[in-house]
Automatic annotation (TrEMBL):
Annotated InterPro entries: DUF4432, Gal_mutarotase_sf_dom, GH-type_carb-bd
GO BP annotations listed: carbohydrate metabolic process
Species of origin: Nonomuraea jabiensis
UniProt-listed Pfam families: DUF4432 (PF14486)
Protein name: DUF4432 family protein
Record-level Gene Ontology MF annotations: carbohydrate binding; catalytic activity
CDD domains registered for this protein in UniProt: Aldose_epim_Ec_c4013
Length: 347
């Protein structure tokens, strides 16, 4: 229990003794130059916000036990990103961390789609890579710190990411991240705006990646699944359990599912990964109306061991299919959409 504001002032001359937010710059290897906000709530919850990577959440732990996935790529500086290489799969060379944002105009696998809405004859089409551009765009950091509301102290950060080109999309993401001093949850609020004056396609997805030691043999998925709408061919080929997870295996081929979830009476979807042996559970909740679709990514490959929870604005069929069936979201000039997501760590 964190002392109240007056008692805390009596006990220490600096709030950082209890927790806080600190801006640092990573200094080595592929991570060199990335501005990072280190959040510590004082409850044992600590996480890093990667300012120069869309303000995504990289490392995350509770009481010294990591739950944000760490891949071999590290948190690669966006200046090293190869957006158009490897037929759009180069996104996988910078894929790591608790939250990796996909969007803002495209998610899922790449491809070529019409660009006629931008009314620029030389740009007849747009070619997208896996999960779009947003996750490798630096943010403009507009503020961070600690704010007292009575005896409640909120740790916060806010920034703006622009995905824009001349004669193309002009999309703005404003991201706010909060955590309470002494608390065990992270609150993420995103607002995406079409800052331009032509309609712009909008797709949005969070790749929420959980790893060891939370993910281990016997850890399990908790979700109110009404129906599994789609699964990758690898599910039938490998038959790995996607509810009670096995340990890592060499050569494992990712298994992907699209599940239809039942929302709670409050309109929220809740999905968790729980590890009873560790005494730890991470729950993610979001508004069903904002992210109506959900994918489970099961990556049991040795050296890449992870499970992904993916709230999404669109079905797994992707960009071209969404345009064809009319489900693509088109943001009008100056139109916005807001997304609210909470991460909670519990026994």
């Amino acid at each position: 229990m964190t002392p109240d504001r007056r008692r805390l002032a009596e006990l220490t001359g600096d709030l950082s003794a209890a927790g806080g937010v600190r801006l640092v710059t990573l200094g080595d290897g592929v991570e060199r130059g990335i501005r990072t906000l280190e959040f510590r709530t004082g409850s044992g919850l600590a996480f890093d916000v990667l300012v120069d990577r869309c303000m995504d959440i990289g490392h995350a732990e509770h009481a010294g036990r990591s739950f944000g996935w760490r891949s071999p790529t590290g948190f690669r500086h966006p200046g090293l990103h190869e957006n158009a290489d490897e037929d759009g799969l180069s996104w996988l060379r910078s894929f790591s961390g608790l939250v990796v944002t996909a969007g803002l105009d495209h998610t899922l696998f790449g491809g070529e789609v019409p660009a006629d809405t931008y009314r620029y004859p030389p740009r007849r089409s747009v070619r997208h890579g896996l999960h779009g551009r947003a996750g490798n765009l630096p943010a403009r950091l507009t503020g961070y710190g600690e704010r007292w509301d009575g005896d409640r102290c909120v740790l916060w950060a806010e920034g703006e990411v622009r995905q824009a080109a001349v004669f193309a999309e002009n999309l703005r993401l404003v991201r706010r991240i909060e955590a309470d001093l002494g608390g065990d949850e992270i609150r993420l609020v995103d607002t995406v705006t079409n800052a331009g004056f032509e309609p712009a396609p909008h797709m949005f997805l969070y790749h929420i990646n959980l790893g060891w030691p939370l993910l281990d043999e016997g850890a399990r998925l908790e979700a109110d699944i009404r129906e599994t709408l789609w699964q990758s061919d690898s599910v039938a080929e490998q038959k790995a359990d996607h509810v009670t997870f096995p340990g890592p295996a060499p050569g494992f081929v990712e298994q992907v599912y699209e599940h239809a979830l039942n929302p709670g009476a409050d309109g929220l979807h809740r999905v968790a990964v729980a590890n009873d042996r560790l005494g730890m559970k991470v729950t993610v909740e979001w508004r069903a109306a904002e992210f109506p679709y959900f994918f489970e990514w099961l990556n049991l490959r040795s050296g890449n061991y992870a499970v992904g929870l993916e709230p999404s604005t669109h079905h797994v069929s992707g960009d071209a299919a969404a345009r064809e069936d009319g489900s693509m979201i088109w943001l009008g000039p100056q139109e916005s959409r807001t997304y609210r997501t909470t991460f909670r760590v519990s026994p």
